[in-house]
């Protein structure tokens, strides 16, 4: 009986964790669409919009999405996208890499974290 109850409790907790993860990803997706969706997509089969496609962004060298014309500042940036660089970029791209063309800024660290979590969910390197 004890093992059955333990198994049931474990399954219940896993269900709660899975639901929480789904809720977190849904909130992250909503934040991305609200904050970034006008200029960017996260779809490996789509091309760029006003900004580059952000599918598989984590681990990608900055300024290298095929078919997108980057500013010279970003094309020659010499860094790879990771959570820390994305956080700085989303906070203020102009301050992070002067001469870039992205105008969007997000001061709220929770909103930036949701955007980054969403982008991580579409990246091979997580």
Question: Mind explaining what this structure looks like?
Answer:
The protein is mainly alpha-helical. The protein has helices at residues 2-36, 72-75, 83-91, 93-96, 109-120. The chain contains five helices and no strands. α3 packs across α5 (109-120).
The percentage of residues in β strands lies in under 5%
What is the succession of H and E elements? HHHHH
- Describe the biggest sheet? none
According to DSSP, the number of beta strands is: 0
Mean pLDDT: 85
Low-confidence runs of at least 5 consecutive residues: 5-20
Radius of gyration: 18 Å
Shape: globular
Q: Summarize the amount of helix as a percent range.
A: 40-55%
In whole angstroms, how far apart are the ends? 40 Å
Helix-strand category: mainly alpha
Helical stretch tally: 5
- Name the assembly state: single chain
Short description:
By secondary structure, the chain is mainly alpha-helical. The protein is 51% helix and 0% strand.
Write the SSE topology.
Elements: H1 2-36, H2 72-75, H3 83-91, H4 93-96, H5 109-120
Helix pairs in contact: 1-5, 3-5
Q: What keyword list fits this structure?
A:
mainly alpha; 5 helices; 51% helix
